[in-house]
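Quick one: structure tokens for this chain, please?
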Amino acid sequence: MSFFGFGQSAELELVLSDAESRRRVEHKTEEGKKEKYFLFYDGETVSGRVILTLKHPNKRLEHQGIKVEFIGQIELYYDRGNHHEFVSLVKDLARPGEFTQSQTFDFEFTHVEKPYESYTGQNVKLRYFLRATVSRRLNDVVKEMDIVVHTLSTYPELNSSIKMEVGIEDCLHIEFEYNKSKYHLKDVIVGKIYFLLVRIKIKHMEIDIIKRETTGTGPNVYHENDTIAKYEIMDGAPVRGESIPIRLFLAGYELTPTMRDINKKFSVRYYLNLVLIDEEERRYFKQQEVVLWRKGDIVRKSMSHQAAIASQRFEGTSSHSEAKTPSQPAENNSRQ
């Protein structure tokens, strides 16, 4: 009877306990659109209620149980349908039975570990979501709600500058320097290019920010390069001894923290690509990897009390580990 539309049917809704006060952030969907989601941090409690609304009052709804799940999973686009879950928590809300009126069920996942940052890339997606399910014989009633997780890092103690000399023998010799090797997502890259020898006619120079996404393992490794930004630092021919300053503001670009070997499924790394173009349109370039991390102290002003505690606990752990191995500065996703 239910199959032909004469039986009871129901709708599910998921509502967070702190929905009115919790911060929302924009996050890119798989289709490339930006939508707003509730923001969480590692260690925060996720709580709320599941609202079951019957479409036909006083008509019975038979079910085989009601549950809510908190899931963190990675999906590789070349392996669709095979989801790799790294967080899977379940709360049973009701035993098998029947309802004749709408119901509300409270749930709470306490101090949930959320080890990785939410990410939507070219070949991979890492997502966290709540899923409520009413199990039925013919067709389950399911409702999902995505959330976004940000990972916070402390300021790296070791953050040396990058200084290199590159060139072409007897043609071009330049020295470039960036003030740091690790930058937070709202940072400013400060540097300079110094020309030691110029015997080719350079007409243009720029710095590109390149994101390199690596997915899969072994023979099934895929690399995807995406140029996030092109920043012109010189237009015209330089002369020997000339110094070109660099100031590149990162806040205006869509960047994520550096991610290394996330759950042994994917990595995201960033490179500064110095590009010189001569009058014959030949391109000379030199890439240098930089580490990007999400600064915690700015975000914490708008965090809930629980998030502040979680962040402090994270920072305390990072400080402890730094004391043991001072040669390894705190970086984003230091767990990995």
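The chain has two helices and 22 strands.
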